Amino acid sequence: MQTNVVAAGRTDVGVVRSDNEDNYLMVPDDGVYIVADGMGGHAAGEIASEMAVRIIARELRDIPREDEKVAAEKMRDAIRHANQQIFQRTIEEQDKRGMGTTATVMLILDSRYLIGHVGDSRAYMLRENQFVQLTKDHSYVQEQVDAGYLTPEQARVHPYSNVITRCVGANDDVMPDVYAGVMHKDDLYLLASDGLTGMLEDHELQEILQNGSDLETSVGQMIEKANGRGGLDNITVVVVRVTEAAPAAPPAQ
Hints:
This protein has seven helices and eleven strands. By secondary structure, the chain is of the alpha+beta class. The chain has one domain: 4-Layer Sandwich (Phosphatase 2c, domain 1), CATH 3.60.40.10. Strands 2, 3, 4, 5, 6 and 9 form a six-stranded antiparallel β-sheet that branches. It has a five-stranded antiparallel β-sheet with strand order 1-11-10-7-8. α1 runs antiparallel to α2 (68-92). The chain is globular. It starts with a strand and ends in a 9-residue tail after the last strand.
């Protein structure tokens, strides 16, 4: 038995912004799903996020699925390669200086998932009524929460809540976090930019995912609700549902 999934994704400019600097990409044949939230003036953020999703997806094509350790290294290498190319462009083109992007990347292996992550876009998992954030933000407020100076509730409304401490393209190298886990039948995975998670609480995201709608409808409901709260940023959502899960193999030692 193979792991089979269905997925839906959408990006929206939001209510306040005039340009959409988010990008996403879904490559079902390769088991690759990516959300990227760009930053930088003169539409440079849109260029950075587009470069990231395209380069990472290309680098993850045809990697060995049976060896999780090798796949994890390929994931890191793919994001770091995107980082190098984006950073090089900031050096060569003056109007691209300062551009960068988040990247949250899901790769489906035979029975497991890998998530590569840089920035404050997020990946969540909904399993048997438990909604769990799989990634940790690379942000100023998350560092303050970790240090005990802010509560998670205070961090959500902090004036520096959008300040990230790690991104793809800002420096000559970046170290992604990589998370791994076993996939179960009926799991739902959510990848989203902070234009969604900054507007909606986790319990609201869970409620929409659990309402039994098809994935396209759920994605649309999330975007509509975020825009109803003010739509302060671009909003990008990708949802993946596991319809059949391969028997779990033990992780590589």
